[in-house]
Design a protein that fits this description.
Strand content: 5-15%
Order of helices and strands: HHHHEHEHEEEHEHEHEHE
Low-confidence stretches: none
Helix content: 25-40%
CATH superfamily: Type I PLP-dependent aspartate aminotransferase-like (Major domain)
Shape: globular
C-alpha cells in the first residue's frame, strides 16, 4: 500500500487560501487558530496532481461534457464503499454540496415553507433556508451527558416534519460526528413518509468513518426512501480538492 506524507509543512499563504488569509474579515483578527473550514493542509494525492498536470498540457480549456468515466467513477466508488448500486441516470452534477442542498430545497419547496435541520449543524444550512425565504424548523439533537453521544429527538422530529416540506439530513453529522444507524434512518424515513417530506441528505463526510461504524446511504434502505431522497456527495473532503467545486447529486426519482 502506498504511503503518503502527512508530516511536511506546506505554507499556503499567498494562494488566496480562505482558511488562513480571510481571518481578519471573518474574525477581525488573524490571531486565531483556523479550525473554521474543513480544509486539510496535507498535499493533495500525487495521482490527482498528475492527472491535472496531464490535462494542463493541452492548451485549450473550452466547454467540455462529462464523459462516461465520470459517471462510472461515481457509481463504482459508491458501490465499492457502501454496496449501493446506483444508475447513471440518477447522477446530476452540482458545483458543491451546499449548492446541491439549495437546488434541492428550491425544487421541492416554495417561499414560506418549513425546512427541518438538526442543530448543532453546519451553519450554511440555516443560512440557505433563510436566504431563500423558507422557514427554519430546528430539531435539535440531544446529547447524552454520560457518553457525550448525540441522538435524535424523534418525538420533536415528528412535530417539526408536520410543518415541513423538506428535511436536510446531515449524515455523518457535522459537527457532532454521529453516524446514524439503519434503525435511526428507517425511523426518519417513516416520519418523512408520514408527512410526505423530501429528504435532502448531505453525505459529504461518508468516507470518514471509524470502526465499528458504517455509513449507510439513507436512499439505499428501501424504495420509498430512494424515491423521496436527494443524496449529495463530493470528493472535496475525502481527497482534499474543495477548490475544484464539484459534487454530485444522486436522485433516483426524477420527479424530485
Amino acid at each position: 500500500m502506498k504511503k503518503y506524507d502527512f508530516d511536511t509543512y506546506i505554507d499556503r499563504i499567498g494562494t488566496d487560501c480562505e482558511k488562513y488569509e480571510d481571518l481578519v474579515r471573518v474574525f477581525g483578527t488573524d490571531r486565531v487558530i483556523p479550525l473554521w473550514i474543513a480544509d486539510m493542509d496535507f498535499a493533495t494525492a500525487d495521482f490527482i496532481v498528475e492527472a491535472m498536470e496531464q490535462r494542463m498540457k493541452h492548451p485549450v480549456f473550452g466547454y467540455t461534457f462529462r464523459p462516461q468515466c465520470y459517471f462510472d467513477a461515481i457509481r463504482g466508488w459508491v458501490e465499492r464503499h457502501s454496496g449501493w448500486r446506483i444508475d447513471t441516470s440518477w447522477i446530476a452534477f452540482s458545483p458543491g454540496v451546499v449548492a446541491g442542498v439549495t437546488f434541492g430545497m428550491l425544487s421541492c419547496t416554495k417561499e414560506g415553507d418549513g425546512v427541518v435541520i438538526q442543530p448543532p449543524v453546519y451553519h450554511p444550512f440555516g443560512n440557505t433556508i433563510r436566504n431563500n425565504r423558507r422557514r427554519v424548523l430546528d430539531n435539535p439533537l440531544i446529547q447524552d451527558p454520560a457518553t457525550g453521544e448525540y441522538r435524535i429527538d424523534f418525538d420533536d422530529l415528528d412535530k417539526k416534519l408536520a410543518e415541513a416540506k423538506a428535511f436536510i439530513l446531515c449524515n455523518p453529522h457535522n459537527p457532532t460526528g454521529r453516524v446514524f444507524t439503519a434503525e435511526e434512518l428507517l425511523k426518519i424515513g417513516e416520519l418523512c413518509k408520514k408527512h410526505d417530506v423530501t429528504i435532502i441528505s448531505d453525505e459529504i463526510h461518508c468516507d470518514f468513518i471509524f470502526r465499528p461504524h458504517k455509513h449507510i446511504h439513507i436512499a439505499s434502505l428501501n424504495e420509498d426512501l430512494a424515491g423521496r431522497t436527494i443524496t449529495l456527495i463530493a470528493p472535496s473532503k475525502s481527497f482534499n480538492v474543495a477548490g475544484f467545486s464539484t459534487a454530485a447529486a444522486i436522485i433516483p426519482n426524477a420527479e424530485r
